[in-house]
Amino acid sequence: MNTNKPSLRKIALLLLALALPASATTLEPEYPDGNVSVPPAPVSSGNESFGEYEIKAGFIYRFLSFVAWPEDQPEGDVITIGILGKNPFGNAFDSIEGSKIGNRVIKIRCFGSDAGIEDLKKCQLLYISASIEKRLQEILKALEGSPALTIGDRGGFIDQGGMIGFVSRENEQVGIEINAAAASRARLTIRSMLKRIAVRIIDDP
């Protein structure tokens, strides 16, 4: 047993700090003015603090609530969050692995840099590490049209065809950029609530 595994409470506090609703079934929360604060990294709550990649892990978990996958895709009983390349998250995902969204269990899969495209296509969300820079264009091109939400934090990620990119804002805040056009081509729907907190959006012409 991993005694260093973060508690579910810690993740819940992190998600609260992200100012995104905790309910995985509420896909259109009401923020009429569209003014949602994005927390700085690290974030503190009481005696607990959260580093950059714990914040990003919290975002990735919340993306499950704000992205709709194609209805004709077989749901199965697993939601797979893939990490391609060097894993910068440490044990940040440990306490959500095995938890459920509806009737589906969250599974975390780590892939080496030589992972096959067909395996990557089986992920609902795929974080592409900066360590994969040399293969990034090849991978994004091969995944075009596949309903895998691609996420990265390399500069210009969405300009290269990635769907959601993490960016640094003022005061070391974590922000997101969204390539809604790329998501649309993969038949993914990014909910308006998530778009409202994006610092930049690439949309269909």
Q: How would you describe what is shown here?
A:
This protein is α/β, with parallel strands linked by helices. It has a single domain, classed as Rossmann fold. Helix content is 23%, strand content 25%. The protein is built from six helices and twelve strands. The protein is globular and about 40 Å long. 33% of the residues are buried. The N terminus is likely disordered.
In short:
With 205 residues, the protein is of the alpha/beta class. It has helices spanning 8-17, 52-66, 117-120, 136-143, 180-185, 192-196, and strands at 43-45, 48-50, 67-68, 78-84, 100-101, 104-111, 125-128, 149-152, 164-168, 174-179, 189-190, 198-202. The longest helix is centred in the N-terminal third of the chain and has 15 residues, at 52-66.
Mean pLDDT: 79
Rg, alpha carbons: 16 Å
In percent, how much strand structure appears in the residues? 15-25%
- How many DSSP E strands? 12
Tally the helices. 6
State the CATH superfamily name: Response regulator
Low-pLDDT runs of 5+ residues are: 1-9, 15-47
Please, what is the oligomeric state? single chain
- Per CATH, what is the topology? Rossmann fold
H and E string? HEEHEEEEHEHEEEHEHE
Shape estimate: globular
Query: Biggest β-sheet, characterized?
Result: 8 strands, mixed
Q: How would you write the strand order of the largest sheet?
A: 5-6-4-7-8-9-10-12
What is the CATH architecture descriptor? Answer: 3-Layer(aba) Sandwich
